[in-house]
Amino acid sequence: MMKPLIITCAITGAEVDKKKQPNLPITPKEQAKAAKDALKAGASIIHLHVRDEAGVPTQCIERFEEVISMIRYKTPDALIQISTGGAIGESVSSRIVPLELKPEMASLNMGTMNFGNDVFQNSYPDIVRIAKRILDLDIVPELEIYDAGMLETAYKLLQEGLISQPFRVQFVLGVPGGMNGDLKNLMFLKSRSEELFGKDLHWSVAGIGRYQLPVAIHAMLLGGHVRVGFEDNIYYKQGELAKSNAQLVERVVRIAKEIGRPIASAKVARETLLSN
Ligand code: KMH
Ligand code: ZN
C-alpha cells in the first residue's frame, strides 16, 4: 500500500487579501471554521498566519494564541504549524515570537530570495537564530525550500546540530524568484534531498498559483506529501476563484484516492511527523 498522504492546508498566508479572494479567512472565527472544514476534508496540518483587527498580517502572540485555541476547540487533533516567515519585511525578532506558544510545528525558511517584486530576507545568522529557538522549544521544523541551493543550507544546519530529527522538508515551487513547479525541478529536489537526508525523509510540496495542482499530483505519485490553500493559490482553475480552502483539499483527496494514496488522519500525521 502507498503511504498515507499528509495534507497541509495553508488557510490564510500573509500576501493575499480579501480583495483578491473574498473567501479568505482572516478573523479568528473565520480561520477556525476554515481549519475545521479543511480537517474535515482530509487535511491534518494547518499552516498558520494570523491577521490583526484591521486584517493586516501580524506575528502578535496574543492573536496566535486566540486563533490556535479556537482551532483546537473545534478540531483538537489538528497539527498547528505556525509561520516564522511572517509577511515580507517583518523583522526576525517579531517572526520568532509565536514560537513561545510551542505549537507542534513551525516553518523555517532556508534563504533570502526575490519574492515577486519584493525580497524575502533570511540571512544565515537569522536562520540560525530561528532554528535555535525551534530546537530549544522542541518544535518540529518544516524546512521551506524555494530553490536548490537552500537544500545545502538545510544540510549545513543539520551538520551544525541546529536542526535534528524529526524535521521535514517542503518544496515551495512557483514563487516568482524561486524554482518553478516543473516536474524536472521536483525530481531534482527529491533526489538531492534524499542524497542529503536519506530515503526516509518526509517531504511535501506547495505549488504556487497555477502550479498547485500539477505539483500536488506529481508529489502524490512520487510518495511525497502535499500542501494546498489560499496562501499559495486562490483559484480552483484558470479564471475561477476557489470557494474555500476545503474545496482545494477535497480535490487533492479525490485524486489521491483514485491513485491509491490513502489519506493520513491527524492521528497518523502526528505519529509520522512528530516522532523520530
Ligand atoms: N509570507 C511569505 C513571504 C512561511 O510561512 O514561513 C513567507 C511565508 C513563509 O509565508
Ligand atoms: Zn506561510
Description:
β9, α5 (149-159) and β10 (168-173) form a beta-alpha-beta unit. The chain is built from 9 helices and 14 strands. The protein has helices spanning 28-41, 61-74, 92-95, 124-136, 149-159, 183-197, 212-222, 245-258, 266-274; strands at 7-10, 45-48, 50-51, 57-58, 79-82, 105-109, 113-115, 118-120, 140-145, 168-173, 203-207, 225-228, 235-237, 240-241. 38% of the residues lie in helices and 19% in strands. The strands form 4 sheets. Strands 1-2-5-6-9-10-11-12 form an 8-stranded parallel beta barrel, surrounded by 7 helices. With 276 residues, it is an alpha/beta fold. Zinc ion binds at residues 10, 13, 47, 49, 83, 85, 107, 231.
Mean pLDDT: 97
Bound compounds, please?
(5S)-5-amino-3-OXO-hexanoic acid, zinc ion
Helix content: 25-40%
Largest sheet: 8 strands, parallel, barrel
| Widest sheet: strand ordering | 1-2-5-6-9-10-11-12
What is the helix/strand order? Answer: EHEEEHEHEEEHEHEHEHEEEHH
As a whole number of angstroms, the C-alpha radius of gyration is 17 Å
**Uncertain stretches:** none
Helical element count?
Answer: 9
Shape: globular
| Count of beta strands | 14
For the record, give the distance between the C-alpha atoms at the N and C termini, rounded to a whole number. Answer: 22 Å
Q: What is the strand content?
A: 15-25%
Structural class: alpha/beta
